UniProtKB/TrEMBL annotation:
Pathway: Carbohydrate metabolism; galactose metabolism. The keyword ATP-binding does not apply. This is UDP-glucose 4-epimerase. Its cofactor is NAD(+). Keywords: Carbohydrate metabolism, Isomerase, NAD. Belongs to the NAD(P)-dependent epimerase/dehydratase family. It holds the Pfam family Epimerase.
């Protein structure tokens, strides 16, 4: 197999590319470097600098590298931005995917893995989200992921491509400090950011119907997520056909308050959080059932929350040396 990893210079993609290469797979990366960095990839993994919107380039890459499988992570991922710029999100996330799937079908590639998201579910009122929980995204970002899944499955059926859609829950941590997420869009870096500025972390809403009143989420270590890709790639390479859509989470709920307390412990800065009003659109609870992934992929998460926070903090310190305490 030769795997093309789109978005492989990004936070999650670089973990996936390294994990697959370390497992002996031949991999190459396509990334437009709009949010990724060449330095995330070791010398042995070739990088094609270009976009999934460039059909001619994709055609050349498939032919020149004899690609036999695709792991598609390239996408815009900021919810707020998707609300402000929905056409851009549909164009890049759905249009880019359609262009890519055209090239996949033309090149006769028969294995395709798609980065989906728990955002496809919206805010379901259930204790545990299974793959049968109805999908009802509440923002354009989530809509592009759901439309992406539809497109992946339809193209799979039409062109005989075996497909897997992985619905990631809240991704955190880093396998190595230099691979850490450099954006401040998720709760862990957001809290680091506040502490680094000498400000109190913020909790949005403490009156939810949850044990401590703050929102509950399912956090997954990015290295475990990379292992899930490896398991899915092996399933595809092993000749599995049809499509599979699975949650990738730990199946364990953690409240924002618990997370902030742990971050205080790990960073040595226990500044108490301040409670602000709820943000519109936040679900009280979003926790995955991880059973199907275990059954179908033989995969389950191994790393815990402390490991996620500690490794994310090491990565944060690399990019924000001013955060280091004497
Ligand atoms: N980070 C999370 O918590 C999370 C959760 C669920 C799903 N996801 C999905 O996982 C994937 C990777 O997310 P990430 O957190 O690593 O984000 P990221 O921004 O770090 O990585 C995305 C990569 O794709 C590249 N890219 C974007 N558009 C491109 C295009 N049109 N052509 C080529 N390259 C392009 C960017 O330069 C970047 O390197 C995305 O599809 C995202 O929607 C992420």
């Amino acid at each position: 197999m030769t795997w093309l990893i789109t978005g492989g210079a990004g936070y999650i993609g670089s973990h996936v590319a390294r994990a697959m290469a370390a497992d002996g797979e031949r991999v190459l990366v396509l990334d437009d470097l709009s949010a990724g960095a060449r330095t995330r990839l070791p010398a042995g993994i070739p990088l094609v600098h270009g976009s999934t919107l460039d059909g001619e380039l994709l055609k050349r890459v498939f032919a020149e590298h004899a690609v036999t499988g695709v792991v598609h992570l390239a996408a815009r991922k900021q919810v707020g931005e998707s609300v402000a710029q929905p056409t851009r999100y549909y164009q890049e996330n759905v249009g880019g995917l359609a262009t890519l799937l055209n090239a996949v079908a033309e090149a006769g590639v028969q294995r395709f893995l798609f980065s989906s998201s728990a955002a496809v579910y919206g805010n379901p009122d259930v204790d545990t989200i299974t793959e049968r929980t109805p999908c009802a995204p509440v923002n354009p970002y989530g809509e592009t992921k759901l439309a992406g899944e539809w497109l992946v499955r339809a193209a799979g059926r039409a062109h005989g491509i075996a497909t897997v859609c992985l619905r990631y829950f809240n991704v955190a941590g880093a396998a190595e400090p230099e691979l850490a997420d450099t954006g401040v869009f998720n709760v862990v870096p957001m809290v680091f950011d506040r502490l680094t500025r000498g400000e109190a972390p913020r909790i949005f809403g403490a009156d939810y119907p949850t044990p401590d009143g703050t929102c509950v989420r399912d956090y997954i270590h990015v290295a475990d997520l990379a292992d899930a890709h490896l398991a899915a790639a092996r399933r595809l390479a092993g000749g599995a056909d049809g499509d599979l859509t699975v949650n990738i989470g730990r199946g364990e709920g953690v409240s924002v308050r618990e997370l902030v307390t742990l971050i205080g412990d790990v960073t040595g800065d226990p500044t108490p959080a301040i409670v602000e009003p709820r943000r519109p659109g936040d679900a009280p609870r979003a926790v995955a059932s991880a059973a199907l992934a275990e059954r179908e992929l033989g995969w389950s998460a191994r790393r815990g929350l402390r490991d996620m926070v500690e490794s994310a903090w090491q990565g944060w310190l690399l990019h924000h040396p001013e955060a280091r305490r004497a």
